[in-house]
Amino acid sequence: MKAKNVQMGIKPLRQGLQEFADTFKAVQSGEKVKPQPEGIYFTNFEAFRKAMTPQRFALLRMIRERKPGSISELAEMAGRDLKNVSEDVSGLVGLGLVELTRTGRNKAPRVRFEKITLEIAV
Fold first, then answer.
1. Run of H or E residues at 84
2. CB-CB contact of 50 with 91 (8 Å)
3. Tens of pLDDT along the chain (122 residues)?
4. Phi, psi angles (nearest 5°) of residue 78
5. For the chain, which domains are there?
6. pTM of the predicted model, to two decimals?
7. Which of 88, 12, 97 is nearest to 46 (CA)?
């Protein structure tokens, strides 16, 4: 499997909406629109910080390297409470960074990307 990268960034809501409007107008007028790379964008640094905590980054690495068979196995590997790990995994699933794959009665978390690139405009 080819390593996939994900772009993360901080983009004001107004800028994101303007980019969407520009793309929509181009499509409406029949222009060919170049596909954009997959990305996850936050409206400000605080939103990024809340979503991507050090604990979540640690879970991403652990999932990628150790491939746990379930969320409870991941919690045990991390030495953390199952409820907290489950909430963190749900947040990562919501961002599209983790997928849950059914293996028997368990759901095994899998990281979708090998690399995350963060871009912050100043």
1. helix 82-95
2. no
3. 344 888 888 887 788 788 888 888 888 888 888 877 678 888 888 999 999 999 999 999 999 999 999 999 999 999 999 999 999 999 999 998 999 999 889 999 999 888 888 887 77
4. -80, -15
5. 5-120 (1.10.10.10)
6. 0.78
7. 12
